[in-house]
């Protein structure tokens, strides 16, 4: 029997770069993970229904890239090698094949009903990006951001907070001199971002880096017709805490980015 969707107050995405050292294979950032756990506990103590989705970070990306898992074994002449890479990626991700299946990269079967059931029972579901079976390519990489978009599409979600290793979205890569934090990213009803933004993805990130994060935020805002705000904050920051436990907007003294829908008059 299908479970009835339960309202979700908050979806927290723990970015792979925030909780792992992406330049070092299978290396945690313990301090960031402890801060994340503290934040989730605060939310639960406030009586909020929370879903946590975390990126794989330095777990799985190297194996997925080396064996071209994203493309699947049906489109690669070295299918057995992709199959082997699929297994290695799964093993690596499981150190931190659910019910998710894709068709040429698009989700056709999700585990959302199970998430809903666990929420109703008082649990905090924890999901992550992973390699999954694909009916067209054999297998592919399902990003945590795609999981979040599916949750927002199938459940009533109050807000989404992406926790990253930097304060938010910048007008160019934050390590570039002169980079400025963008506090508000406005998106028109066609999905076009008003501001000019230059993104920079790490070469080992097979799920799209910051470009996918931003496009996911835009899609969430669009598919909800602007009713689901998306915030990007630094893990462990006061901004992240205030937004997660009930804040509706960033205070003037808090660093972060909110993605909103800009309707034409």
From TrEMBL:
InterPro entries tied to this protein: AceGlu_kinase-like_sf, Asp/Glu/Uridylate_kinase
GO biological process: terpenoid biosynthetic process
Domain of life (superkingdom): Eukaryota
Aspartate/glutamate/uridylate kinase domain mapped to chain residues: 10-233
Keyword ATP-binding listed: yes
Pfam families associated with the record: AA_kinase
Keywords: ATP-binding, Kinase, Nucleotide-binding, Transferase
SUPFAM superfamilies named in the record: Carbamate kinase-like (SSF53633)
Molecular-function GO terms, alphabetical: ATP binding; isopentenyl phosphate kinase activity; kinase activity
Keyword check for ATP-binding: yes
A cellular-component GO term for this protein: cytosol
PANTHER family: GLUTAMATE 5-KINASE, ISOPENTENYL PHOSPHATE KINASE
Name recorded for this polypeptide: Isopentenyl phosphate kinase-like
Organism: Homarus americanus
């Amino acid at each position: 029997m299908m479970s009835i969707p339960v309202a979700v107050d908050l979806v927290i995405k723990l970015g792979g770069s925030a909780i792992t050292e992406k330049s070092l294979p299978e290396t945690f950032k313990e301090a960031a993970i402890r801060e994340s756990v503290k934040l989730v506990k605060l939310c639960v103590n406030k009586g909020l229904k929370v879903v946590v989705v975390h990126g794989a970070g330095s777990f799985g990306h190297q194996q997925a890239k080396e064996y071209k898992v994203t493309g699947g074994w049906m489109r690669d002449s070295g299918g057995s090698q992709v199959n082997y890479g699929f297994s290695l990626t799964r093993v690596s991700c499981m150190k931190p094949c659910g019910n998710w299946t894709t068709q040429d990269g698009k989700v056709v079967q999700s585990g959302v009903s199970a998430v809903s059931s666990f929420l109703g029972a008082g649990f905090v579901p924890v999901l992550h990006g992973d390699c999954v079976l694909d009916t067209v390519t054999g297998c592919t990489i399902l990003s945590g951001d795609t999981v979040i978009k599916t949750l927002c599409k199938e459940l009533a979600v109050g807000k989404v907070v992406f926790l990253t290793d930097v304060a938010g979205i910048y007008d160019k890569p934050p390590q570039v001199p002169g980079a400025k934090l963008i506090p508000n990213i406005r998106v028109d009803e066609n999905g076009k971002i008003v501001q000019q933004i230059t993104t920079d993805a790490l070469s080992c990130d097979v799920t799209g880096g910051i470009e996918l994060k931003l496009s996911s935020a835009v899609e969430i805002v669009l598919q909800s017709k602007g009713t689901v705000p998306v915030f990007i904050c630094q893990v462990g920051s006061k901004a992240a805490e205030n937004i997660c436990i009930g804040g509706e907007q960033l205070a003037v003294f808090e660093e972060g980015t909110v993605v909103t829908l800009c309707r034409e008059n």
